[in-house]
Amino acid sequence: MIQKSLSKHQYHCHLWFPDLFNSTGGIQRYSSFCLKGFQTIYPNFAYDILIKHDTDVPSKSPNLYFHPSGNWPLSLRTPAFASQLIGLGFWQRPNLIFSSHLNFSVPAYLLKRLMGIPYWVVAHGIEVWNLQNSTLQTALHHADRILAVSHYTRDRLIQEQNLDPDKVVVLPNTFDADSFQIAPKPDNLLKQYGLKPEQPIILTVARLSQLEQYKGYDRILAALPQIRQAIPNVHYILVGKGDDKLRIEQLISQYQLQDCVTLTGYVPDAELSSYYHLCDVFAMPSKAEGFGIVYLEALACGKPTLGGNQDGAQDALCQGELGALVNPDDVEAIAQTIIQILQGIYPNPLMYQPEALREKVIKKFGFEQFQKTLGSYLEKHFELI
């Protein structure tokens, strides 16, 4: 465990998060691990955590204080939260502002201009790609450090925004390895969905949003007729909910897949691991994913995993070391790769070694490595103060 010995409350940090306790999205989870990392590395620092959308937060502890803004009406929440960020920043003058979303970088930039307070910003993916907003561009350029969740996002950000490469570093997503273990196919889910234990099952876990069709579940639907020719009893399970469901149902009807596709709807986080256990391959051929925590979860369950070769999935699957990377627009390639994986002939033997897959993904992306990487960046910062 990394832990820096500094005198009590020697330094004071502001941590700015969109959500922390009242939602379960990728940025929320990343923010939660960042908070855990700060507390573990520097347990004696004073932390003020300002959260835009949360309403319920833990009570104050000796060096940890939460400031939720979720009780404000949505129409007033952004100005109220920005006022709180600036007001508390002026009053407390922290040694570092850490923002887990680009949108909060503007108040941080103002505080830096007025008071010299350094700030860091996390870049997740689509919110920073093709960035045109000049105010956000300015705030990004003046950040003391930008933490990209993948090398893909880092390289794209540097190129598109002409940023100093030295201040854009990578802090990959992490995950709760204890919640995702290797286990047999659950009898209750086999029975619930009318499946047989030996039946090959493809799984995708994704938000079914019209704004996130880049996840690639529609490409798997398009590939299924070809997959069925080679593997007639294959079944596709799509976990998630959202406003893209009608289009998905139309595609299922168009491809005549009613008997081999299951849309589960929403599945609570606590039950997700059972669905990973159920599948024989996890497939999400995305093309605009900043990273993709679901890949890590599937790998930790020992499952062969497929992602797209044009986005942050390249990082999650370690450029193909941990899984298969395909052109997300090539339905033929998606079909052939899934067929190879299910037939046990994909040319990467690691994909058929569950324990080794789990060990490697934890070593590369487990919280211990996340904490070590974050600690190395923080140490350099506080050495200069």
Short description:
The protein has 385 residues and is α/β, with parallel strands linked by helices.
- CATH topology annotation of the largest domain: Rossmann fold
Class inferred from helices and paired strands: alpha/beta
Known CATH architecture of the largest domain: 3-Layer(aba) Sandwich
Order of helices and strands: EHEEHEHEHEHEHEHEHEHEHEHEHHH
Our estimate of the beta-strand percent is 15-25%
Provide the gyration radius in Å. Answer: 22 Å
Rounded mean pLDDT score: 94
Low-confidence stretches: 5-9
Quickly name the level 1 CATH class of the largest domain: Alpha Beta
* DSSP strand tally: 13
Overall 3D geometry? elongated
* Count of individual helical segments: 14
The CATH superfamily of the largest domain is: Glycogen Phosphorylase B
State the helical fraction. Answer: 40-55%
Strand order within the widest sheet? 3-2-1-4-5-6-7
